[in-house]
Design brief:
The complex is a heterodimer of chains A (183) and B (181).
Chain A lengths: L13 H6 L1 H16 L7 H14 L3 H15 L3 H10 L7 H15 L6 H9 L4 H23 L8 H14 L9
Helix pairs in contact in A: 2-8, 3-4, 3-6, 3-8, 4-5, 4-9, 6-7, 6-8
Chain B lengths: L11 H8 L1 H16 L6 H14 L3 H15 L4 H9 L7 H15 L6 H9 L4 H23 L8 H12 L10
Helix pairs in contact in B: 1-2, 2-8, 3-4, 3-6, 3-8, 4-5, 4-9, 6-7, 6-8
The chains are: A mainly alpha (183), B mainly alpha (181).
Chain lengths: 183, 181
């Protein structure tokens, strides 16, 4: 049971967002620009993957499955590949640049000051731009918020991971702005 | 020096939102609605939660600036802010605020750290759903803001008078800074 009275049928972040629409608005705008805006040299799949990876590190079941499923949808891969990235991204076939960005995201998850100059240099050497580094840090930081919001209020989450995969296409098409929380 | 090329001499989050105003806009809107919008918690209490979480995250910029804003808003009771940052449990804030700050401290560690007994304790001291929700979201949001500011190694002034001025400005609300260039 959630820590506060939320609409029963809404899983994860949708409960608190329905409870507090005026704070949900800028949170969804942030998600839309960070994760979905096409004026970005990081693909939607790469950005969702950073969100899923940080949510995994924060042990947030709902967020890591929603955003893992979105990454899976955009990258046209299977759940196993997403899981292998979460478990040990260094030994997967993702690009070197994305590996350096995931390393930065992993440090941000621990705390801002864990990001080292060496990690930034490695990302730049692998071709990452300042904007890509900025967005990586902000996506990682934003998920440290979303994850805490979802778990700090003890919201419920569907246990079947396939539910998230089935919904990913709809969320990818609708985006994070103006979607119906009850659908 | 910051990890990315931002405008020199601009402190903390201001330099970052000037670098990327598209994401800066919802970040400032969130701060405004969360810390200045409708809530059963006073603006001073909400700034105190922000300063407390930033303190626990070791984010000097956010801690100093939001503590300064909280001092402004507490006015004659501003000593409360420093008491809380020194030792929350023996500070002069109300027992209800202590219970909410305790929840905020749990959220700072991780969402799942918040236990039903923490919520019950706050409720028994008069906190309602809205106060609990706002406390959790402020603590979560500052777990983001702190990481954003420090994760990019943005400029952190060390002069206390700089923060005093900042606090006065922040007490009036959060408006996205515009580039002077």
């Amino acid at each position: 049971m959630a820590h506060i009275q939320l609409p029963d049928e809404l899983p994860g972040i949708r409960g608190p967002m329905a409870f507090s629409p005026h704070t949900a608005k800028p949170m969804n705008e942030l998600a839309e620009i960070l994760l979905r805006d096409d004026n970005n040299t990081l693909t939607r799949g790469e950005r969702e993957l950073i969100g899923a990876y940080v949510s995994y590190l924060n042990d947030c079941f709902f967020c890591q499955n929603v955003h893992g499923a979105l990454a899976q949808h955009y990258m046209q891969c299977d759940m196993q590949f997403i899981d292998s990235i979460k478990n040990d991204f260094q030994s997967t076939t993702i690009s070197e640049k994305l590996k350096t960005l995931l390393a930065i995201a992993g440090s941000v998850q621990k705390g801002g000051r864990f990001v080292t100059t060496a990690q930034i240099e490695a990302a730049k050497n692998a071709g990452a731009t300042d904007k890509e580094i900025h967005d990586t840090v902000l996506i990682a930081a934003a998920f440290c918020m979303f994850n805490r919001y979802v778990d700090g209020l003890a919201t419920w989450a569907p246990a079947d991971r396939n539910v998230y995969v089935q919904r990913a296409k709809m969320r990818a098409e609708e985006g994070y702005l103006d979607f119906d929380l009850y659908k | 020096m910051a990890h990315i090329k931002v405008e020199e001499g601009i402190p903390g989050i201001r330099s970052l939102v000037l670098f990327r105003p598209e994401t800066g806009k919802p970040l400032y809107e969130l701060a405004q609605v969360l810390l200045r919008g409708p809530s059963p918690l006073t603006e001073a209490e909400r700034e105190l939660v922000a300063a407390y979480v930033s303190y626990r995250n070791g984010c000097m910029f956010c801690m100093s600036s939001h503590a300064a804003a909280a001092r402004c808003l507490y006015g004659d009771d501003k000593v409360i802010v420093d008491e809380v940052l020194q030792d929350m449990q023996s500070s002069g804030v109300s027992d209800k605020m202590k219970a909410l700050l305790h929840i905020a401290g749990k959220v700072q560690v991780l969402g799942k750290e918040v236990k039903p007994e923490d919520i019950t304790a706050a409720r028994n001291l008069g906190a309602g759903d809205r106060e609990i929700h706002d406390t959790v979201l402020i603590a979560a949001a500052f777990s983001m803001f702190n990481r954003y500011v420090d994760g990019l190694a943005s400029f952190t002034p060390t002069d206390a008078t700089v923060y005093e001025e900042m606090g006065k400005r922040m007490a009036h609300g959060y408006v996205l800074p515009q580039s002077t260039k």
